Amino acid sequence: MSSLNGKDIVIFGGSSGIGLRVAQGAAREGANLILIGRDATRLAAARDDVAAFGTLVETRQVDAHDHAALEAAFAALPEFDHLVSMVGDVMGGGFVNAEMSVIRHVMESKFFTNVRIGQLAAAKLREHGSLVFTSGTGGRAQNACASYVGNLGINALVEGLAAELAPRARVNAVSPTWTLTPFWRNTPKEQVASIQQHFEETIPLRRLASIEELANAYLFLMHNDFITGQHIAVDGGIMLG
Ligand SMILES: NC(=O)c1ccc[n+]([C@@H]2O[C@H](COP(=O)([O-])OP(=O)(O)OC[C@H]3O[C@@H](n4cnc5c(N)ncnc54)[C@H](OP(=O)(O)O)[C@@H]3O)[C@@H](O)[C@H]2O)c1
Q1: 46 — phi, psi (to 5°)?
Q2: Topology (CATH level 3) of domain 8-240
Q3: 76 alpha carbon to ligand 1 midpoint, in Å?
Q4: N vs C: which end of the chain shows fewer Cβ within 10 Å?
Q5: Contacts of 95 by beta carbon, 8 Å cutoff, 6+ apart
Q6: pLDDT digits over 108-134, tens only?
Q7: Is 111 in the pocket of ligand 1 (CB under 6 A)?
């Protein structure tokens, strides 16, 4: 297992939720971080939080959905050892009644933006480094249509990039299922409570993941030098039922 001490790590989505917890864990191990997000207030709070571990922390305000801005951001990035991407909007519901614009947005956000991140990251990734993307699990094609396709797309992206970048670097993904994070900040509280109850009853382990459990999977994939092309579900076994 390689150490993260002194490594340079870029986290798209390091200002909140799972990505912020990955940043805290990596900084605790001595890694230097570049945290990327859209919201300046969240970025500043995350920088102060992660800087408390005593390593170097920078922030970049970028909307990854804007591919021109994404390219400019990568052009300005130094080389790095690991990159984590938390980018990916989601949707619920089946195909029949879904708005095409929403399906397109989710595919653009979850799949095409991460393809572009992978392409641009490949040029800046140091030898023995890794990329860790975010897939997802728990939804089905009939109740999470474009999210389901987007997750399959991430799993394929990881396989392709892993083969293309080997032996120089590794590429993997973590697949969370529904988790109580700030991701749901704009969803009404009663709706969040009802979804939470549904997942607690459906997940075979009868509870939600903690943000810590998810973040640990990203850290594990950065540490373990012999895992590539994999998507690891941290989902309490939700797809077993
Ligand atoms: N929580 C769940 O139930 C769940 C389940 C399955 C999969 N996931 C996936 O896990 C990932 C992270 O979720 P989370 O729960 O940690 O959510 P979160 O707390 O909202 O964190 C998301 C992070 O990504 C950043 N981000 C999102 N879109 C971006 C963009 N276009 N450009 C730059 N930064 C962007 C956010 O920054 P800003 O706030 O500044 O935009 C924030 O730092 C998402 O891809 C989500 O689809 C979550």
Answers
A1: -65, -40
A2: Rossmann fold (3.40.50)
A3: 23
A4: C
A5: 103, 141, 142, 145
A6: 999 999 999 999 999 999 999 999 999
A7: no
